[in-house]
Write a structure and sequence with these properties.
The chain has 144 residues and is of the alpha+beta class. It contains two helices and eight strands, in the order H-E-E-E-E-H-E-E-E-E. The longest helix has 17 residues, at 73-89. The two termini are 15 Å apart.
Length: 144
């Protein structure tokens, strides 16, 4: 499910925002400032909770951090509002990568828990100017 959720979020955001969405993993290189605007998606900590006796139902909260990198502060503010609305209100298609070809097997909503603007780490890293991160949770209940 983790792979399906992350791929679905990446695919959906690329589609509705019309920008490149980079999947963050060990060793990945971010595009340079000429590729802005672009977005990133990274898996964060998941939490599990047993909901019933005998472990018949377990809830997992899947967490992701979605980054938005813009050319200017005004572009960041405009795109931030658009991303926020999509994450708050849209039904996102769940793509099942276990099937070939991959198919949409349902839909899910996200819970937007935070929006954090981050300043550049260094004046040399121009691709990190004008960025904001969205903290997103997706609640899934698994049954035995």
């Amino acid at each position: 499910m983790q792979l399906n959720l992350q791929h679905s979020l990446r695919t959906y955001l690329a589609s509705v925002m019309g920008v490149q969405v980079v999947w963050i993993f060990d060793g990945v290189k971010l595009p340079d400032e000429t590729a802005k605007p672009f977005m990133t998606i990274e898996q964060m900590q998941n939490n599990n909770a047993v909901l019933s006796k005998g472990r018949e139902a377990v809830e997992t909260i899947h967490r992701f951090q979605i980054g938005l990198f813009a050319k200017s502060a005004s572009e960041r503010a405009t795109l931030q509002a658009k991303v926020k609305r999509h994450l708050l209100f849209d039904k996102i298609p769940l793509i099942d990568l276990g099937q070939s070809p991959a198919v949409v097997s349902g839909f899910f909503h996200t819970e937007l828990t935070g929006e954090v603007p981050i300043g550049a780490d260094s004046t040399d890293a121009r691709n990190t100017y004008h960025r904001v991160y969205f903290d997103v949770e997706i609640d899934v209940i698994y049954y035995a």
